[in-house]
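Tokenised fold entry reproduced for everyone:
>
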Amino acid sequence: MSELMVALVQASEKAANIARSCRQDETLFSLLIEEKKSDKNKKFSADFKTLADVLVQEVIKHDIGKRFPGLENNIFGEETNEFMNGLGERIQVMLCERDADTARLLSKVLDGNMQAAEALASAAHQDVIIPDLHTGSVHIPIHNLGVWVDPIDSTLQYIKGISNSVPEGSIYSRGLQCVTVLIGAYDLQTGEPLMGVINQPFAEMDDSKRWQGRFFWGISAGPLSVNSLSSTPLSRGDSTHPLPTPNPVADPSLGVRGSKLSTVLSTREVKRVKALFQDCCEGGVYYASGAGYKALCVILGLVDVYVFTEDSTYKWDSCGPHALLRSMGGGMADLKECLRHSPAGGAEERPELQYNTPIAEASGTEKWANRDGLVAYRSKADLEAVLQLLTTVEL
């Protein structure tokens, strides 16, 4: 398990390197955007995928499969490995064994731009060294595991490339800071999330105006719950960015209107839910882009909960953050399922998101939607406060 955790972190760091490489040159970046012609995400009138998305996903499959043979067959994500170049040719993107072969393949996508292709191939093949994560020891057979990957979450913010966004209460509503790489491992039989990595490739800009990243990981498997936040978080330059003090835990006995709950919402949340939280959450209501980034805001204690009542997040968005939250004693609840059933046993029996079963009546990516919405939380008291609040509106 510890070796796999290191492999997932290494894959996320390589993914972050690729994401930064693609953004480094605007001329290169303009070549990488292809509008999706079908299977659009309902969040946007026009959804996009980038070569970075596709390449990152293939690199993760290749690297993890090389270290854990067979596991690559159970690595799933949003993107196919097909990309169309300027000549209308469909290219199957993959990581070859040699840098030069990968560069030649990528040059076909990049309309013969070998310089750009070599830069991307170099990032894809670069070795990443991860120090001992001190994960502890637990054995889970590899054949029992599946992996969900979101190679670049908040693709729209990645494409826009806003670098001067100003945070509100340490939370960015938009910009490259909202971009994350998400990797989560789950039990194929139970659907429970077991291991998660959130990598933030554009966490901060250094004095030379180059982006630096950071990553967070967590394991919640059987008796083992451990994460990178239990000590100093692993990141470049992290000593200047200590973790914030968590917000006070909401006390349900205070009643809805007395709650000190703070929350982060999507700008695309329905108006009645926005209005409800603005009226009732004295701890503050914030808005941010990217499901992974909003979950990270909860993990870092910037807010108490992330709530989304719509069905436009997916298993690849939530699996990694969910595992990390579980390692901290929190979780990611299946929102409307919780509201449909109020167990006598209390919050410990609230249904959580699961990752192994598609929606039978759906097709395409919608098979893997979090259809009933979600609540990401660190405290079960906070989850109960949210559910109490949402019983007052029709969803």
Residues 2-24 form the longest helix (23 residues).
